[in-house]
Amino acid sequence: MSIATQVATRVATQTSAPTAAPTAARSDDRLHATSRLGRRVQPPLTSVIGFSRERHLMSTNVSSGRHAAPVPEADEAASVVLHEERLSTSLIRRPVERIRVERYVVTEQQTFTVEVRREEVRVTREPIDVASEGEPADVAPAPRARDFLMTLNREEILFSKRIVPSELVRVRVGDVVENHTVTETLGREQLDLIASPSPAPPRG
């Protein structure tokens, strides 16, 4: 068999089954998306299928017997959902401290001014008018005491202490609102597209 006959037979065999080569090439062309968060991002099934479907233009080189590289359609694209971290805050109530209310006595020194009284002796002297009184009689006067004894009194301070209510104290628990700043590192995914070249189809 001549060389021209062998080439014609090989071309006829390849054109009769055009689906074998695209199937092998389609299984190797994938989108490798690596997340910068350290995990591999799996694209949706529809995006993988849409990206791997290609329109292969089968051109046969008679001299070498190889197929041309598959050319993807321009209107088909893959879609990958990226994720990012978001911070959500919540509040919980926890016991912080225990307060005990105690009543104790405070001692202080106070000074008071009190008015006190005491008795004193005052001597009042009055002259005697002999003309108005008349001549004294010749009767001997009765004996009189020369000293007068009197008891003088004074006031003394007596004090006593007693407990009386002074004020009313009411203890209440209230909430105090404060603003606290929370700082946290959040991550978000980014795509690094790595193009994996399709291996050349085997020679026929």
From TrEMBL:
Residues 1-25 have a biased composition (Low complexity). Residues 1-39 are annotated as: Disordered. Pfam families: DUF2382. Residues 82-192 form the DUF2382 domain. It comes from the Bacteria. This is DUF2382 domain-containing protein.
